[in-house]
Fold this sequence. Notes:
Layout: H1 9-32, E1 62-66, H2 70-81, E2 85-90, H3 93-101, E3 105-108, H4 114-121, E4 128-131, H5 143-157, E5 164-167, H6 193-201
Amino acid sequence: DPHSTDFNEGLWRTCCASFVQHSRLLETLERDWPTHATVERGFGSLSSRNRGAGVVSRSLGDLLIFGCGFLGLRAARLWISRGGAVRAITRSAARAERLRHDGIGPIVADLMDPGSIREPLADLPIQHVLYCVGYDRGSLVSKESLYIDGLKNAVEAVANPAARWVYVSSSSVYGQDDGSWVDETSPTEPISDGGRICLRAE
């Protein structure tokens, strides 16, 4: 709340920047995914991030989504609207039915159980992977376990190497809260536990 006595303008701008970052990602998917791969950045272990060149691909192919929530579901709908096929991992049978209603092939499995995701993915022709798993605060799994071990399980479960992985991280890996602008060249110096965990995952 900007009118609160605890209002931190720098933190507010960082939160707004995070929202804008996700909005811009969706705009990029809407505009470029039919013919171009999304932009890659450097790994989080590096002091800064570098933009990679987009790679032109005329065939959408099959997309697998880990974390088909707000961002993942919209990406799935865009992919399907351009003629591609989408599968998504979900823990919930009820959620699986909703995904199926959207034309998405649901795979009921638990990201924290390697066996449950490895078997159904063993023979799937997956060309692209979108990993945008968010943390469920009501879960008994720790954020560190989900973001580190869960990602490791996902990578190992996709037996056939995908042509492109897109990993959605968090702006918290940067840590700046002084209102300054943040981009791919900004130093990754997270100040929160969540930011440090996301940086390790990258």
